[in-house]
Amino acid sequence: MSPFQKPEQPPDQRCSEGDVNVSPRRRAWAVQNLSPETQQLLEEDAKYFLHQSLSTPCLSALKSCRGAWIEDVQGHRYLDFHGNNVHQVGFGHPRVIAAIKQQIDTLSFCTRRYTCEPAIALARKLAELAPGDLQRILFAPGGTSAIGMALKLARIATGRFKFISMWDSFHGASLDAISVGGEAMFRNGVGPLLPGCEHVPPPDHRHCPFHCGEACNLACADYVEYVLDKEGDVAAVIGETVRCTPFIPPPDYWARIRAACDKHGALLILDEIPIGLGRTGRMFACEHYDAVPDMLVLGKGLGGGIFPLAALVAREGLNVAADQALGHYTHEKNPVACAAGLATLQVIEEEALVEHSRALGDHACQRMKQMAKRHPLIGEVRGLGLLMGIELLRDHDVLTRASEEAEQIMYAALSRGLNFKLTMGNILTLTPPLTISQAELDQAFAILEDCIGEVEAAQRS
Ligand SMILES: Cc1ncc(COP(=O)(O)O)c(C=O)c1O
To answer: Which of 59, 185, 301, 319 keeps 20 to 30 A from 70, CA to CA?
Structure first.
């Protein structure tokens, strides 16, 4: 029997998007590593902020960030392989900072009803870079808001209200975004969500309910078409081109869904908020697939890791809502954010970060594959450019997620200067800045391998 047909333990739903911030291991790490001054700051944070998962109570307190590194208030430096995926150009890139400073001194805000040169320049640049006829832009102050605009535009353009999206996906934390998102931690306990949102299994061959395993026959893509057909009036399919865990869909996945959308009159919306702008080794992840979406959603690193900035990039034919408000966000054309965005795209091009991400990603993949041969805890390694994941399994036959071990490894790595997050409990999710050097990357993998080895040795003894 194929291992993919054997039962597997379901993931702890609290861990789908990141590690748990109130776990006993978190508390133990804090006791060992945090100074009284840091603990005081965390207590103040916990006093004033609403507590929520993945945030307050916080891990530690930061003092500075530069390039691939973050530094806490105790002076400990960490290679940041999480960075909330805002750090394509690294933290505090001098070019981005200079553009921001220059813009602040001239036009620091653009009142609604006016436009401004930086906003137009950034929109023009995105339209030039985007594939196909993705030419029409709307900016928003965050990715979730841009997703909301995409959903509204899909409804208006098609006259339909239904969406198909993936279980386990994330598109933001607002009520509309969690309606199409697929994580229980965000969806449970908040009452009715948007009607007409159907979910399908994600293209995750290892945990695929269609059991096709390594010999994937794209049953999950065909199931999207099945639902499109049954519903008959779906406005759009929305998905993360590559889930940031990462789940890397097979090469034909999006082309098959694109064709199914065209056949059934549905639009295709691809969310590349954490993975666009070079992270996967292409400027946009959809360029790995032979499919151009009707709408592409970008965010996070678009603001250079400094400003909140997101963009909806839609095809020309979707300029159909002139008498309605799609976004209407106060910071829709914020000149400082747009100057940061333009400088970011220039840095990505001039420093050849897309090519660097591809080359270093190949190197990292080789390294992870070698690690997998040496470490039985590693169930699978995955990577596309500098979007990487190491899935830990306790028992490869029954796919038991090694979540305890993953948490141990994460805190051990943190104590040695490497910061990353976990997804689904057992996946070490690794997303360094695209500016990282090979030496820094190797340093991170050396730390990781030591920590994995230590946990395995402790298990043996
Ligand atoms: C795939 C994806 N979509 C949407 C969002 C929401 O973006 P924001 O936090 O900027 O609202 C995120 C944030 O992590 C994301 O990873």
So the answer is: 185
Instruction: Please tell me the predicted confidence (pLDDT) of residue 6.
Output: 46
Helix (H) or strand (E) run with residue 29 in it: helix 24-33
Candidates 166, 170, 176, 243: which one to mutate for ligand 1, based on the most atoms within 8 Å of Cβ? 170
Work out the pLDDT band at 287, boundaries 50, 70, 90: very high
Structure tokens that stand for 253 in this block:
């996945």
Q: Which two tokens stand for residue 356?
A: 């660097």
How far apart CA 163 and CA 199 sit, in angstroms, is: 8
Cα 250–chain centre separation: 18
Taking the centre of ligand 1 as the mean of its atom positions, its distance from the CA of residue 31, in whole angstroms, is: 31
Residue with tokens 């890139």: 93
Question: Once rounded to an integer, what is the mean pLDDT over residues 178-188?
Answer: 94
Angle, helix 335-350 to helix 94-104, in steps of 10 degrees: 150
Contacts for 1 with CB less than 8 Å, ≥ 6 apart: none
- Rounded distance between C-alpha atoms, residue 429 and residue 421, angstroms: 6
> Residue 337 CA to chain centroid, in angstroms?
20
Give the bridge partners for 138, in sequence order.
312
Residue where the block lists tokens 């390294």: 367
* Residue having the nearest C-alpha atom to atom 7 of ligand 1: 143
